Amino acid sequence: MPQRLIRKLEHFTRLSDADKDALNGLGRKVRLCEAGTDIIREGDTPENVNLFLDGWAYRYKQLEDGRRQIVAFFVPGDLCDLHVFVFREMDHAIAAITPVRLAVIPREHLLNLMDRHPRVTRALWWETLVNAAIQREWTFNLGRRTALERLAHLFCEVFLRLRAVGLTEGNTCPFPVTQVELADATGLTSVHVNRTLREMRASGLIVFKGRQFTVPDFLALRKVALFNPNYLHLDHEGAYLNANA
């Protein structure tokens, strides 16, 4: 069930029971994808919207010679391009980092839900705009931040996104991303990423254990990253639309 999506949307506004019931209905058709496989390929014709119920993935572009740029990470509760079905073909690909469980939402089902539940529609607009804000921040990250700032910024962002959907425990969260994937997301070489991560560990900014990381002092990590969380818009900007107001 898409409880993590509901939890995320309620960072924008409080939804009614009817709104939540409608969103819960999105989880009826489920698709499973293995780690390392493409969920959707560049050139495919998109017909449905995918909601991540479990697992991690990334959006990427790749050149013919194999060079790859990761432009987004997906975590549970994320929708994969709300209006993607208006395109004739995909201009990028999405690959699973871990085993992934998706709710496959037919176009007609989603459009019907949005027609019947205007508060949900506005919350989904918010989700789309936040994704665009994250993309802007990633572009700025690549163009202006140092290697240390880029990685620290990414860790801050991931931690807050996971906390928003209830996937952190204290100051620890899952992180199944490899150093190669980190390099492709931050425009660095894997050697540079490895060296920078060693520097961060030695400074006590971050602790890795298995496929998770811990942030001993989030304010210290935020200071190093020059991180301003305002682009995540997690402060209930749609409070005036509260279903229970």
From TrEMBL:
<dbReference type="Pfam" id="PF13545">
    <property type="entry name" value="HTH_Crp_2"/>
</dbReference>
<feature type="domain" description="HTH crp-type">
    <location>
        <begin position="145"/>
        <end position="219"/>
    </location>
</feature>
<dbReference type="GO" id="GO:0003677">
    <property type="term" value="F:DNA binding"/>
</dbReference>
<dbReference type="Pfam" id="PF00027">
    <property type="entry name" value="cNMP_binding"/>
</dbReference>
<dbReference type="InterPro" id="IPR014710">
    <property type="entry name" value="RmlC-like_jellyroll"/>
</dbReference>
<dbReference type="GO" id="GO:0006355">
    <property type="term" value="P:regulation of DNA-templated transcription"/>
</dbReference>
<keyword id="KW-0804">Transcription</keyword>
<dbReference type="InterPro" id="IPR036388">
    <property type="entry name" value="WH-like_DNA-bd_sf"/>
</dbReference>
<dbReference type="InterPro" id="IPR036390">
    <property type="entry name" value="WH_DNA-bd_sf"/>
</dbReference>
<dbReference type="InterPro" id="IPR018490">
    <property type="entry name" value="cNMP-bd_dom_sf"/>
</dbReference>
<feature type="domain" description="Cyclic nucleotide-binding">
    <location>
        <begin position="11"/>
        <end position="131"/>
    </location>
</feature>
<keyword id="KW-0805">Transcription regulation</keyword>
<protein>
    <submittedName>
        <fullName>Cyclic nucleotide-binding protein</fullName>
    </submittedName>
</protein>
<dbReference type="InterPro" id="IPR012318">
    <property type="entry name" value="HTH_CRP"/>
</dbReference>
<keyword id="KW-0238">DNA-binding</keyword>
<dbReference type="InterPro" id="IPR000595">
    <property type="entry name" value="cNMP-bd_dom"/>
</dbReference>
